[in-house]
Design brief:
With 181 residues, this protein is mostly helical. It contains six helices and four strands. The strands form two sheets. It has a two-stranded antiparallel ribbon with strand order 1-2. A two-stranded antiparallel ribbon has the order 3-4.
């Protein structure tokens, strides 16, 4: 018994699959007038980092699920953890989504998304333990580390938003320029 190619492809890409609707619908954007966490990098950084992280996760997941040395029970448990992590990520994205009505996010959203990312971090920690406790996986497990670190960074940004440690942007004239105050 083994995982079919279709199952390996779907499970390996599950993190990407849950993020695509949010990106396509513009729910991950930040308005230039929206409050941002003090350590928040420019928007274009997110557009570079997330696809790179998703690519690494996909490669790692597929290689692990295709590894003939690993047992089916390990692969099944790994697949379940990846799916749970993808679900947790979708909950986080849902709570942190952009709302057109308020042209941004509410304080309640910041708090709910903080709770969601904490759950996601716990799930990611479990996956990290699973990866690093199995020697048969080899070095491919290190592709998970940047994602795990980025989630920790995202949680710090979320904490700053909840605590009100933000930089506000203000229009400074007839030309549509902004200035940090």
């Amino acid at each position: 018994m083994h995982l079919s190619v279709a199952n390996r492809l779907l499970i390996s890409g599950s993190q990407v699959l849950v993020a695509i609707p949010f990106s396509l619908l513009g729910l991950t954007k930040f308005e230039h007038t929206e409050e941002k966490a003090i350590w928040q990098p420019p928007n274009k950084v997110f557009g570079i980092v997330w696809p790179c992280l998703y690519s690494m996760l996909y490669v790692m997941n597929y290689k692990i699920l295709s590894n003939p040395v690993l047992t089916l029970s390990y692969k099944t448990l790994f697949a379940k953890n990846v799916i749970i992590e993808s679900f947790c990520q979708s909950v986080w994205l849902y709570y942190f989504r952009y709302k057109k009505q308020i042209r941004g996010r509410s304080k309640e959203q910041y708090f709910s998304s903080l709770l969601a990312i904490i759950v996601l971090l716990f799930q990611s920690s479990e996956l990290m333990k699973m990866l690093f406790s199995c020697e048969k996986i080899g070095n491919i497990k290190y592709l998970y580390v940047p994602y795990f670190l980025w989630l920790n960074f995202a949680s710090l940004l979320n904490i700053q938003l909840v605590a009100g440690y933000t930089k506000q942007l203000k229009h400074v004239g007839p030309i549509d320029r902004c200035m940090i105050i």
